[in-house]
Design a protein that fits this description.
Layout: E1 2-6, H1 13-24, E2 27-30, H2 31-44, H3 52-61, E3 64-69, E4 72-77, E5 80-81, H4 89-98, H5 102-116, E6 121-125, H6 128-132, E7 138-143, H7 146-159, H8 166-182, E8 195-198, H9 204-220
Parallel strand pairs: 1-6, 1-7, 2-6, 7-8
Antiparallel strand pairs: 3-4, 4-5
Helix pairs in contact: 1-9, 2-4, 3-5, 4-8, 7-8
Bound molecules: 2'-deoxycytidine-5'-monophosphate.
The site of 2'-deoxycytidine-5'-monophosphate (DC) has 13 residues, from helix 2, helix 4 and helix 8.
């Protein structure tokens, strides 16, 4: 069984995916974390975000692994745990930029398909239902208003001690939404056979419940 969850930033994809994975014993694959790891490495190596060829090569030569640890899922880049380093606003923007590069996408899509293999998986991202797992049995396109998504992300960042304002998070999110849905390579869009779920006005808890119930009913059918 393959479950694909796509949608813009802050829609609640990862919270829902983690919950479903632990409830149903599925493997959770956070594809955004992979683009973030490459964005982080580009920034760390002082490579300009315009240098597409260099970044393609860097992605090809990078070793990315998802590991289950006592603290949940961790992402390793070239053997080093970078989980705590990839959620900053700078890395978010760099991830969005590198994800527009065709060669980077090809490298990471190959890796994502390899990890999915023949496991029961729930994978979240932007192109899972359209490109990575086009035959997934369940496809959800999760969305919510930019204001709701920004407020959730702002509260999340605040809890982690990241200094920012709601306005800044909203503007970053709108910019990232635009970049992710207007790029030439696999732009963010709902697969034709995806169920679109809009969680505007709901708390994250309410939307998790709604979607988990939906997945469970579809998985049984
Ligand atoms: O889901 P996220 O916010 O962690 O993703 C970070 C960036 O990576 C996002 O701006 C778009 C990109 N991304 C993508 O292009 N395709 C994916 N499957 C996952 C993420």
């Amino acid at each position: 069984m393959q479950i694909a969850i796509d949608g813009p930033a802050g829609a609640g994809k990862s919270t829902i995916s983690k919950f479903v994975a632990s409830e149903m014993g599925y493997l959770y694959i956070d594809t955004g974390a992979m683009y973030r790891a490459i964005g982080y490495k580009v920034l760390k190596n002082n490579i300009s975000l315009d240098e597409n060829e260099k970044i393609e090569l860097l992605a090809k030569e990078s070793e990315i692994e998802l590991k289950i640890t006592d603290h949940g899922q961790s992402i390793y880049l070239d053997g080093v745990d970078v989980t705590g380093k990839i959620r900053t606003p700078e890395v978010s923007m760099a991830a969005s930029r590198v994800s527009a590069i065709g060669g980077v996408r090809r490298t990471l899509v190959d890796l994502q398909r390899k990890i999915a293999g023949s496991n029961n998986v729930i994978m979240d991202g932007r192109d899972i239902g359209t490109v990575v797992l086009p035959d997934a049995e369940i496809k959800i396109f999760l969305t919510a208003s930019a204001e709701d998504r920004a407020m959730r992300r702002y509260l999340e960042l605040k809890e982690k001690g990241v200094e920012t304002s709601y306005q800044e998070v909203l503007e970053d999110m709108q910019k990232r939404d635009y970049q992710d849905s207007h790029r030439a390579e696999s732009p963010l869009k709902a697969a034709l056979d995806a169920t679109v779920i809009d969680t505007s006005g709901q708390t994250l808890g309410e939307s998790v419940k709604l979607i988990v119930d939906f997945i469970k009913s579809r998985a049984k059918a």
